[in-house]
Design goal:
Bound molecules: 2-acetamido-2-deoxy-beta-D-glucopyranose
GO biological process, one term: response to endoplasmic reticulum stress
Main location: endoplasmic reticulum
Helix content: 25-40%
Protein name: protein disulfide-isomerase
EC number: 5.3.4.1
Structural class: alpha/beta
Radius of gyration: 26 Å
Enzyme class: isomerase
CATH superfamily of the largest domain: Glutaredoxin
CATH architecture of the largest domain: 3-Layer(aba) Sandwich
Number of helices: 15
CATH topology of the largest domain: Glutaredoxin
Number of domains: 3
Strand content: 5-15%
């Protein structure tokens, strides 16, 4: 379907465009994202989304003929994949179109993320130039990070990374829809997504499922499951999961120019809207007078009170929080006597801002431990951390008996956050936590019989790595049944859930 506005725009472009002139085929309000060669790397190549990119010239007849189908494909794929177009007639884009090996117009390429971040797999689309065929081809290339579970494997999945949020879709379908795959990509690293069939009666009973599709959010830990009551459409489902954490941006935000800054990068790219296939002008650099802020840093606006983390000076506090044999992961900054030293204040500020940023996703607790804490010296010497006048940043998990040391050059938030992320992903080497630092007898929390805890650490590491979102994202789509055999249902979305 073409809107009246689109017809008017098309008519205008027919009247105005002459060969050689850089007139775009797709207007500002089109569902097709008009990109330049300069945007490609950020908007397409570095996105976790799968994209289709049309390379065209405005004067080319086949390009004009493709336009309605391409617009319609873009509408169907909204929120699921990106549909973009590059005007190769524009002088600015000519070198890029050349680099991409474009020899005729229109050329369509499907671009999807590979194992190497920012180095996508690019393939020519040579199927029919019809909306349905395009939609189907793009959907088939969307990487799958959704886990299929059954009555037998449900418990295992529920217990994996128990404290982080999960979402599970009950469906009568065995196939995982493109919508759910896209939802899992939006929340990669934030919410683990699974699908289970309603013929799995034990699970259906356990959750009291009355109809399919039903989407349930498990916020983590011991919190009660939440049932999605809204529409089974991408946007509504994104909003539903956003109560745990805002979705990932659909691509990295634009780099700020040297003298200028991009607009408020906190709000726009992370809003649920950003997960739609539209990379609208809101993602383009916008002139602003605010100082330059790198996306990965955690801005602490001056008006807000600075976030802080608890500093433990009592033996019992440290034991109760982190060093008893039931204690889960803790991040601990061992502080020097002089807590006002630059290293100490930087480390505490970085930890506080990182904790605040990830609070919604139930990140493990962060503590400072003052030098006055009677356990500080023994811990530093037992773990051979080094000087008592330095800051030592460690992570411990006394329950599982491991610890990790931060060995970065500085305590700035970006480096520390990367280390924290690695811990969350189960990456990096774990050292064995000496039994001597773990309290057992007077453990403050009751100890439960959980067979998993008895397993050697090695197994835990493998389990976690296996489900690292980046790893699974990197693998080929894992759909067991051939996606091609499925009838394409362009609308409504929920029929494929
Ligand atoms: C996480 O584990 C706790 C205790 O082991 C359990 O009560 C809770 O139901 C689990 N949460 C999820 C989401 O599985
Ligand atoms: C891509 O996904 C990963 C997690 O799988 C996430 O950490 C990252 O922010 C995403 N990238 C973008 C640009 O959203």
């Amino acid at each position: 379907m073409i809107s009246k506005a689109a017809l008017v725009a098309a008519a205008a472009s027919l009247l105005l465009a002459h060969p050689g002139q850089a007139q775009s085929l797709y207007g500002k309000n089109s569902a097709v994202v008009q990109i330049s060669g300069m945007d490609y790397d950020r908007v397409i190549a570095k996105s976790n989304y799968t994209s289709i990119v049309e390379f065209y010239a405005p004067w080319c007849g086949h390009c004009k003929n493709l336009k309605p189908a391409y617009e319609s494909a873009a509408k169907s794929l909204a929120g699921i994949a990106k549909v973009a177009a590059v005007n190769c007639d524009d002088e600015m884009n000519k070198p890029f179109c050349g680099q991409m090996g474009v020899q005729g117009f229109p050329t369509l390429k499907i671009v999807r993320p590979s194992k190497k971040a920012g180095k996508p797999i690019v393939e020519d689309y040579q199927g029919q130039r019809a909306a349905k065929a395009i939609v189907e081809a793009v959907k088939a290339k969307i990487p799958n990070t959704v886990k299929k579970v059954t009555d037998q494997t449900l418990d295992e999945w529920l217990n994996e990374k128990n404290e982080t949020a999960k979402a599970i879709l009950f469906s009568d379908k065995g196939l995982i829809s493109a919508t759910l795959k896209a939802l899992a990509i939006d929340f990669g690293g934030l919410v683990s997504v699974a699908q289970i069939r309603n013929k799995e009666t034990a699970a259906t009973k356990m959750f009291g499922i009355e109809k399919v599709p039903t989407l349930i959010l498990l916020p983590g830990g011991t919190q009660e499951p939440i049932f999605h009551q809204g529409e089974m459409k991408k946007e509504a489902m994104v909003e539903f999961l956003s109560q745990v954490a805002p979705p990932n941006p659909d691509c990295p935000p634009p780099k700020a120019k040297k003298s200028k800054s991009k607009k408020d990068d906190k709000a726009t790219p992370k809003s649920p809207k950003a997960s739609s296939s539209k990379v609208s002008s809101s993602e383009k650099p916008v002139k602003s007078t605010t100082p330059e802020v790198k996306d990965d840093t955690i801005p602490v606006p001056a008006e807000e009170p600075r976030p802080t983390i608890p500093v433990l000076s009592e033996r019992s506090e440290l034991e109760a929080s982190c060093l008893n044999d039931n204690a889960k992961t803790c991040v601990i900054a061992m502080l020097p006597k002089d807590e006002t030293s630059e290293a100490a204040t930087t480390a505490l500020a970085s930890l506080a801002s990182i904790h605040k940023k990830h609070r919604a996703s139930h990140i493990f607790p962060f503590f400072g431990v003052s030098a006055a804490n009677p356990l500080a010296s023994p811990l530093i010497s037992n773990l051979k951390l080094g000087g008592e006048n330095e800051v030592h940043l460690i992570a411990t998990n006394a329950k599982r008996g491991w610890w990790k040391k931060y060995s970065g050059q500085s305590f700035d938030a970006v480096q520390v956050e990367a280390w924290v992320d690695a811990i969350r992903m189960g990456e990096g080497k774990k050292e064995k936590l000496p039994d001597s630092v773990i309290t057992t007898g007077e453990a403050p929390k009751p100890k439960k019989e959980e067979p998993v805890e008895q397993q050697p650490i090695q197994i835990e590491i493998e389990e976690i790595i296996e489900e690292t979102p980046d790893e699974s994202l990197a693998t080929e789509p894992k759909t067991e049944e051939p996606v091609e055999d499925r009838p394409v249902q362009i609308t409504p979305e929920h029929s494929e859930l």
